[in-house]
Design goal:
The chain has 394 residues and is an alpha+beta fold. The protein is globular. It has two domains: 54-180 and 191-230, HIT-like (HIT family, subunit A), CATH 3.30.428; 235-390, HIT family, subunit A (2-Layer Sandwich), CATH 3.30.428. The protein has seven helices and 17 strands. It has a twelve-stranded antiparallel beta sheet. A three-stranded antiparallel beta sheet has the order 5-4-7, with no helix packed on it. It has helices at 142-146, 178-196, 233-245, 249-258, 300-319, 364-369, 378-390; strands at residues 13-16, 22-27, 33-38, 63-67, 72-76, 111-115, 153-155, 159-164, 203-210, 222-228, 263-266, 270-273, 282-288, 327-332, 346-351, 353-355, 358-359. Keywords: Carbohydrate metabolism, Galactose metabolism, Metal-binding, Nucleotidyltransferase, Transferase, Zinc. Residues 65-231 form the Galactose-1-phosphate uridyl transferase N-terminal domain. Its EC number is 2.7.7.12. It holds the Pfam family GalP_UDP_transf.
Length: 394
């Protein structure tokens, strides 16, 4: 493999973002976009190696089928069946490339974001770069997606991206420094803005899956961003609740929770709490005090505080037990075109871990009917998490 410095060739474009973060944009050998986000004060130079691999063409874009019983769109993405499963460090596809490991990222990096090679959504958008197939039957809008009928299908347009928090083989968001956490937050905001501008995208969802018990197939510290061609079922139910209770629903929730014993962490701009009706053994929400529909709408001060406060929360979660806790860290954002004034950005972190050696499994009533039973009182869960957070240092 011949990895050439692209800095002088102009193969990558750079831009200064907030908090001293620099974005450098280039492309992988098959045309997928790759974006580097350099830490403030990075030790990396401006040049980036070119991806000299010979890659197969990008897979055909997946399709979506409508479940007429629920109105949900189900993506069928057969290309995802052969994903890498728990590779060793010398075969890590998210590590910087070496002569013996032709990974997805050609250069050493601080934070890197790239298009997933086997996405559930996309790349059939007009803005897609490279050998992406054209959308055969793309959705024409929310009215089209909301119509019920048998045998309805559409091309699964959108985009799926991988967000690498670090070049190290193992870790999670919670193992990063405050500076690195701030870089990732800047990347989330930048990608949210860019993905929201793509044709056909209705909602953008950054998230981190952590732990084999959740189904993680790569131990590398990373998350993902999905850009959906529809408003997700969970968000659709939220918008209905807002319509039924009032446009200030999140203001009501925040005031209600801040006055309770379920608060676990509070700053100038953010509050973390175990929700009143928590479903999972470990569930905590993190919400900004001011209405912001997504990461792109956060102020620099809100982003700065989030970096340290979120790390304290995640390290508190890991301090509950002697081993790291599996979780899903789901960053809910308002849809791109509806609900922007009422649906607020917030984290919903959930874990099935109900004891040091026990997990909660969704059985008949919960998995089949969506009728939940919680075994741990939210107030008890909040008290344990507060104690764990109290011992955290950054």
């Amino acid at each position: 493999m011949n990895m050439r410095d692209s800095g002088a060739s102009g193969a990558s474009a750079s831009a200064a973002l907030g908090a001293g973060v620099v974005r450098r944009t280039t492309h992988l050998a098959d045309g997928r976009e790759l974006i580097y986000y350099d830490d403030p004060g990075t030790t990396l130079g401006p040049g980036r190696a070119l991806d000299a691999r010979v890659l197969a063409p990008r897979p055909e874009t997946a399709t979506m089928r409508l479940d007429v019983l629920t109105g949900d769109w189900i993506t069928v993405a057969a290309a995802r069946q052969n994903r890498v499963m728990l590779p060793s460090a010398d075969a890590d596809p998210l590590a910087p490339q070496t002569p013996s490991n032709l990974s997805e990222i050609p250069s050493r990096y601080d934070v890197a974001v790239f298009e997933n090679r086997s996405p559930a959504f996309g790349p059939a958008l007009t803005e897609a770069i490279g050998a992406a197939p054209a959308a055969v039957d793309a959705p024409t809008g929310l009215d089209d997606l909301g119509a019920l009928g048998l045998s309805r299908s559409r091309t699964s347009v959108g985009r799926c991206e991988v967000v690498c928090f670090s070049p190290e083989h193992e870790g999670s968001f919670g193992t990063q420094t405050v500076t690195r956490a701030r870089t990732v937050i800047e990347a989330w905001a930048d990608r949210t803005e860019a993905l929201s501008a793509l044709t056909g995208v209705q909602q953008v969802f950054p998230f981190e899956n952590r732990g084999e018990a959740i189904g993680v197939t790569l131990p590398h510290p990373h998350g993902q961003i999905y850009a959906y061609p529809y408003v997700t079922p969970r968000t659709t139910r939220l918008l209905d609740s807002i319509a039924r209770t009032g446009p200030d629903l999140f203001e009501q929730i925040l005031a209600f929770e801040q006055a309770s014993e379920r608060v676990v962490l509070r700053g100038e701009h953010w509050t973390a709490f175990v929700p009143f009706a928590a479903r999972w053994p470990l569930e905590v929400h993190l919400m900004p005090h001011r209405h912001a529909p997504d990461f792109a709408a956060l102020t620099p001060e809100e982003r700065d505080e989030l970096a340290s406060l979120y790390l304290r929360l995640l390290r508190g979660v890991d301090a509950l037990y002697d081993t790291p806790t599996p979780y899903i860290a789901a960053w809910h954002q308002a849809p791109v075109h509806v609900g922007r004034d009422t649906a607020r950005l917030r984290l919903e972190l959930t874990s099935p871990r109900r004891a040091a050696d026990k997990l909660k499994f969704l059985a008949g009533s919960e998995a089949a009917m969506g009728a939940w039973t919680a075994e741990i009182e939210p107030e008890q869960s909040a008290a344990r998490l507060r104690d764990a957070i109290a011992g955290v240092t950054l």
